[in-house]
């Protein structure tokens, strides 16, 4: 009993001491914590802890115990490094003549005529030696305490070269900035006013090209000679000739371009008028009505003329106002249309100025007052889209509802049939049309028909589309282009999305896929020896940068989904999403939100898979290992990712690690062909 009492007293004393000092952190542990992690404070208030790694692109990575989080450098408010850490140091880089790129601490062994690269991998130090005659160049890195972004640095360099006295250098820089597209636009807009006047003029042209590119398909660029040069010319007649070619090639999809130019107040008046008339020739009266409401008087007049030429007389007031203009040609144009509509001239003479025809003008105004309601109603009837009866609409909705239920349950083929019937009955329902098109290529594999449906939605139903729907349609058009191997069209669609929404993670992923496809298919990316050209290196840097951004925005979305307050808002919104596999999900319960979170994590894994493939193409196996390690962290039950990790490990020289990864893949899926092939290649 005495022994028990001593133990009990000791326990009480320990408990008392624990209570007294519970709020005082252990100094040794504090020191240990300071050594163990860095802190990244984001602008939205979040604080992330882990090991900070500068990816060398537009993002940083925070390595944590359960994986890593990628963050855009622009969203970082402050970075507090562990006191035990040395300032961040970018890796030296060695470029070999066979296209291989190695990173690490680089020194030269003059006696043995070798380049030595010391690397830290998996907690182990390793040393690579390469004969000097196999090395193309060495890039030494200086110590830095901040973050670098090679893409941004390249943009800054090109912008400086815009002011060069050497016209060849300036033109090359301009062409490169045009090609960079979305990666250069934000910087150019932000820094424009701080540049010399010469550079500002060039930047204005680059920004205009970037905006126009949203409306022009690659087919136009390949079919129309010197498109950009003619678009930026100071000759109005040349511009009109160019736009006529675009009209003939593109047809209805050219409406967006014509609307953009028509509303550009810095454009030639005759060019703007041509664009308005082209919109009328395409029978896009809804767009003409938008121009009729413009704050630009000339634009209202030209829109009224075009509407009148198409039998829609809601712009008569603008035509009557034009009779008062000093320009006789404007008076004549307005008078000709008004006479056709009213079937009389009220003794007005367009050759004479309005100031001497007050009585005639008064009669025209009285005529409009008497006929405005009738002519407006007739115009509205012509503008109104095709309508369906209430019974037809109800039947179409019932079909669509059944289609969505079948879709949610996984029966995509029957869902497609029901949505197809719903669209036949009520062709004006854009939501049903868009989802019907998605199913066409996900299930029916009818890419051509799906493409036509998406294009029709974008251009024939544009006034009914929300911005969210517009982005989704372009995203699917980009994926269709990728499936057809058309990297130019894919680039166009994904860039167009990012001009609308910089935070669309999947569009960055699609952009990276398109750039990687360009790398493999464009002959200008490699020389005759199969080595990357300067252009090829730039394309792959853009692809890697796009993936980094995609991962950063996906991580941000995952963080929001895990926030209880955001979850409650999602449930209220009753949001619908379509996953990569084509599954339709309605998110209104915690279980469904968790499933949605898993789809985001799956997307993140797919981004790392693509990154691993790019690094594999570059023979940067250590980087590929890092990418696939991230992929299996996201999806540990994905046998394919484990097999890809095994391949990367084998090619990096880690045979034991490769075997473990292949075996893990087979544990997940005993039939994984890639893992079986990998083990056989290792001589298992």
The low-confidence runs, each spanning 5 or more residues with pLDDT under 50, are 1-35, 142-146
Strand order of the largest sheet: 4-3-2-1-5
Helix fraction?
A: 55-70%
SSE class? alpha+beta
Share in β-strands: 5-15%
For the record, the CATH architecture of the largest domain stands as Alpha Horseshoe
Span of the ends, CA to CA: 64 Å
What's the total helix number?
30
Mean pLDDT: 81
> Can you tell me the CATH topology of the largest domain?
Leucine-rich Repeat Variant
CATH class term of the largest domain: Mainly Alpha
State the major sheet.
Answer: 5 strands, antiparallel
General form? globular
Describe what this molecule looks like in 3D.
With 684 residues, this protein is of the alpha+beta class. The chain has six domains: 1-35; 37-83, Roll (SH3 type barrels), CATH 2.30.30.100; 92-139, SH3 type barrels, CATH 2.30.30; 152-383, Leucine-rich Repeat Variant; 390-619, Alpha Horseshoe (Serine Threonine Protein Phosphatase 5, Tetratricopeptide repeat); 636-684, no CATH class. The protein contains 30 helices and twelve strands. The strands form three sheets. A five-stranded antiparallel sheet has the order 4-3-2-1-5. Helix 21 (467-483) runs parallel beside helix 23. The longest helix is centred in the C-terminal third of the chain and has 28 residues, at 534-561. It starts with a helix and ends with a helix.
Short description:
With 684 residues, this protein is of the alpha+beta class. It is built from 30 helices and twelve strands.
Keywords:
single chain, alpha+beta, SH3 type barrels, disordered N terminus
